């Protein structure tokens, strides 16, 4: 039997997953690490923490699975998108990585818009200037840390730093590179005109490949650290959203995915680049060759419930520890005891600003409509509903772009809750399918690795064989009017609070 390894370098931790060639999960390991917030709206991580988590995870899955390292035929890499990793000429990390949810770069975005122009930026990169993307972070370092900027030899994305540690090769691939805002997504190559206009040296960028291309091989040093076989191929991989889409079989037009992770995403594959003229959804290269994708993003999805748990749920956390019941199962059970509409509470999930549909790094979150009748259950439900309304904003925009929607698949940590899945179906008023692909992004890049090393003929072929339907959630049609009214209230709130 041949095996494939998928590494998913996430925001809260790295998941390492080993699969056989039929897509069955053999062994997984997850190691967590810290996120640093030096100031309000800032978010950073130490790239060495990612590497340590990868080394431990790889050793775990190999040693505990009993699989021989030589039988692992390929490695795929997925990771949080947009993070800025700066490496000097000695291949040392210069400073902590500024990651995807960081919002410090508003001035740099204004500068990009002034120099390039909003319409031209969207035409080249698929997006307006965005605080979360890598380019604005690079410009922030140039403006605020000139000494660090002068030291730069290469800039990398989080998963591509792990690629370098495994292979000693500087490389990236089109799906993740699209989120740097320096790639011309039409030609799937670095934009010479954009880099020249912003006075950025192209040499600091890694070579860019299609996502199924073998970009390097495991070095002797990395093999000793990880228990991998020296020379194991490492394939391009994908940004976390494109990887998760492949893992869920979102590889052709008509099938949409909704992912409830730290952030929330509505993702649609397309056969050609399509643009929202306001740039409210992202248009990026897909990990599938000659495909693109449209992506609406809400910053604070699972992040919102995690924040609420940490801040207001000491009793529930204690109960969870005593009973051995997952804390999120306890919280979603509480949500199920509240009514649709949360007894009047409307939650706005803008804890880290917002992308879709507002493109506003400064807007803050809120609970609106609170009264004396409300209890803890209502607050929990309002968070689930508020995040789901934000995802519906994304879905509405994608529908407005004439993207065909034959099926919606749901995944991510939030989607493991039957309560959250039902609320989402009721708000979307669409049926939702889960898939037997709990490893998501790790499975997606394992599939890409399998294509790269010749185990599968194509990404589409692999997904047909591996990604299977699991269960379907039907919307409660009786709640259509109820949620329509609450959705109107939710949409009316942003213009009222955006300057607060």
Helix content: 25-40%
Give start-end ranges of low-pLDDT stretches.
none
CATH class of the largest domain: Alpha Beta
Fill in the CATH topology of the largest domain: Nucleotidyltransferase, domain 5
Determine the strand fraction and express it as a percent band: 15-25%
The largest beta-sheet arranges its strands as 3-2-1-5-14-13
What does this structure look like?
By secondary structure, the chain is an alpha+beta fold. It folds into 2 domains: 3-249, 2-Layer Sandwich (Nucleotidyltransferase, domain 5), CATH 3.30.420.40; 296-436 and 469-497, ATPase, nucleotide binding domain (Nucleotidyltransferase, domain 5, 2-Layer Sandwich). Helix content is 39%, strand content 22%. It is built from 18 helices and 23 strands. The strands form 8 sheets. A 6-stranded mixed β-sheet has the order 3-2-1-5-14-13, with helices on both faces. Strands 17-18-16-15-21 form a 5-stranded mixed β-sheet. Strand 2 and strand 3 form a beta hairpin. Helix 2 (106-116) packs across helix 3. The chain is globular. The termini are far apart. The relative contact order is 0.13. Residues 3-247 form the Carbohydrate kinase FGGY N-terminal domain. One of its GO terms (biological process) is D-xylose metabolic process. Catalyzes the phosphorylation of D-xylulose to D-xylulose 5-phosphate. InterPro entries: ATPase_NBD, Carb_kinase_FGGY, Carb_kinase_FGGY_CS, FGGY_C, FGGY_Carb_Kinase, FGGY_N, Xylulokinase.
């Amino acid at each position: 039997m041949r095996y494939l390894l998928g590494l998913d370098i996430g925001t809260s931790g790295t998941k390492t997953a080993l699969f056989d060639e039929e897509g069955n999960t053999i062994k997984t390991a997850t190691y967590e690490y810290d996120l640093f917030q030096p100031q309000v709206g800032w978010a950073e991580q130490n790239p060495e923490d990612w590497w340590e988590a990868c080394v431990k995870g790889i050793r775990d899955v190999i040693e505990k699975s009993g699989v021989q390292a030589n039988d692992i035929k390929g490695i795929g890499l997925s990771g949080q998108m947009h993070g800025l990793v700066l490496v000097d000429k000695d291949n040392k990390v210069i400073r902590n990585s500024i990651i995807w949810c960081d919002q410090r770069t508003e001035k740099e975005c204004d500068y990009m818009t002034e120099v390039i122009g909003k319409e031209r930026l969207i035409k080249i990169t698929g997006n307006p200037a965005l605080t979360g993307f890598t380019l604005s972070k690079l410009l922030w370092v140039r403006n605020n840390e000139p000494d660090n900027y002068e030291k730069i030899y290469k800039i990398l994305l989080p998963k591509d730093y792990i690629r370098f540690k495994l292979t000693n090769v500087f490389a990236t691939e089109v799906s993740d590179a699209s989120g740097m805002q320096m790639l011309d997504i039409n030609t799937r190559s670095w934009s010479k005109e954009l880099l020249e206009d912003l006075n950025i040296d192209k040499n600091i960028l890694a070579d860019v490949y299609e996502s199924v291309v073998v970009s390097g091989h495991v070095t002797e040093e990395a093999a000793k650290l990880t228990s991998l076989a020296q020379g194991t191929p490492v394939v391009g991989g994908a940004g976390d959203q494109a990887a998760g889409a492949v893992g869920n079989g979102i590889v052709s037009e008509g099938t949409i995915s909704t992912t409830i992770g730290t952030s929330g995403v509505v993702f649609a594959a397309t056969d050609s680049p399509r643009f929202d003229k306001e740039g409210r959804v992202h248009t990026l290269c897909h990990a599938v060759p000659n495909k693109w994708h449209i992506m609406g993003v809400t910053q604070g999805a699972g992040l919102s419930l995690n924040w609420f748990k940490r801040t207001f749920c000491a009793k529930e956390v204690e109960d969870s520890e005593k009973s051995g019941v997952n804390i999120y199962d306890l919280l979603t059970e509480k949500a199920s005891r509240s009514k649709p509409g949360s007894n009047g509470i409307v939650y706005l999930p803008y804890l880290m600003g917002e992308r879709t549909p507002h493109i506003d790094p400064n807007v803050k979150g809120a609970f609106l409509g609170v009264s004396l009748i409300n209890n803890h259950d209502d607050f929990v439900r309002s968070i689930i509903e508020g995040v789901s309304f934000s995802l519906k904003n994304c879905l509405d925009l994608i529908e407005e772009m004439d993207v065909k929607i034959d099926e919606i698949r749901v995944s991510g940590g939030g989607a493991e809750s039957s309560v959250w899945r039902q609320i989402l179906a009721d708000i979307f008023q669409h049926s939702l399918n889960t898939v037997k692909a709990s490893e998501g992004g790790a499975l997606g890049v394992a599939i890409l690795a399998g294509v790269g090393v010749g185990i599968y003929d194509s990404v589409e072929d692999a997904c047909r064989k591996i990604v299977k339907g699991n269960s379907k959630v039907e919307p409660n049609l009786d709640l259509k009017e109820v949620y329509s009214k609450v959705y109107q209230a939710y949409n009316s709130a942003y213009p009222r609070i955006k300057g607060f």
